[in-house]
Each structure stands twice: as C-alpha cells, then as structure tokens.
Amino acid sequence: MAGLATTKMSSKGQVVIPEDIRKQLNLKPGVQFVVVGAKDVVILKTISAPSMDDFDALIAEARIKGKEAGLKKSDIAAAVARARGRK
User: Fold this and answer.
1) What does the pLDDT read at residue 3?
2) 2-38, pLDDT tens digit by residue?
3) Whole-number Å distance between alpha carbons of 16 and 41
4) What is the structure's pLDDT at 48?
5) How far apart are CA 55 and CA 63, in angstroms?
6) What pLDDT, on the 0 to 100 scale, is given for residue 87?
7) How far apart are CA 68 and CA 46, in angstroms?
8) CB atoms closer than 10 angstroms to residue 72
9) What burial class does residue 54 get, using C-beta atoms within 10 Å of its C-beta: 0-12 exposed, 13-18 middle, 19+ buried?
10) CA nearest 25: which of 17, 15, 36?
11) Could you state, in order of their start, the residue ranges of all structural domains in the chain?
12) Among 59, 63, 64, 70, which has the minimal tally of Cβ within 10 Å of its Cβ?
C-alpha cells in the first residue's frame, strides 16, 4: 500500500511532502509535478523530460507523420510565424 501521511498548506499555497513519502518515492529537490484537482482531490504526478533516446524517437515519429500528412518545411515555417504573431 502507498504511504499515508498528513500535511498542511501554508498561506502561500505551499505543501510539504512528508519525509517518509519523499524517501519512498525517491523525490529530490527540484522535481517537477503536474497538479490535477477535482472536487476535494488533489493529485501530484512527477514529470520529467524525456531521455535523448526517447526524444530522438519522438522526433523521428513526428517526421514520419508529417511526411504522411504531406507537410512541407514551408508549412511549418508559416505555422511558427503565425504562432509568433507574424504573417
């Protein structure tokens, strides 16, 4: 069963993750979380950047999907320009 502990939120909205839980999950300073809240439930899920191998695989897959969709480099440049507020 997962660790169980109580904690309080500070006036600044900060919550301390109890030491036992941090050790159990090997949480180190600087770890990032995505926070999901619904009704009276708050979930913290650790997130991390993909490894370089995973990133390379994602890029390769994106290139394949782009070719399958008929995208050209000029289409991507135009989309980036639009996103940046230029024509």
Assistant:
1) 76
2) 678 899 999 999 999 999 999 999 999 999 999 999 9
3) 16
4) 86
5) 12
6) 57
7) 34
8) 10
9) exposed
10) 17
11) 1-48, 52-83
12) 70
